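Query structure, 88 tokens:
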């Protein structure tokens, strides 16, 4: 493969990459520059962005998940302590 073919292939790859990114570009509501739709903060002006398809979790649900994780963690710690206490 000669140098021209390699450069052409690399340029075609870079073009496909740019096209994929452009599908996800949106204007920042603060400064108007293009940013990707998954960003939470504009890299140009620092303004807060809401990612596309993102909805913050309900506080009640978040607290319920936190409580369940805490209970599971405590039960696991107690089970491990009992296991080591009886089998050592």
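Result returned for the query:
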């Amino acid at each position: 493969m000669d140098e021209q073919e390699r450069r052409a292939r690399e340029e075609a790859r870079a073009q496909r990459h740019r096209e994929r990114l452009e599908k996800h570009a949106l204007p920042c509501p603060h400064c108007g520059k293009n940013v990707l739709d998954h960003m939470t903060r504009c890299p140009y002006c620092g303004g807060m962005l809401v990612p596309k398809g993102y909805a913050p979790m309900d506080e009640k649900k978040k607290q319920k998940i936190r409580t369940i994780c805490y209970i599971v963690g405590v039960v696991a710690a107690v089970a491990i302590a009992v296991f080591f206490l009886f089998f050592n």
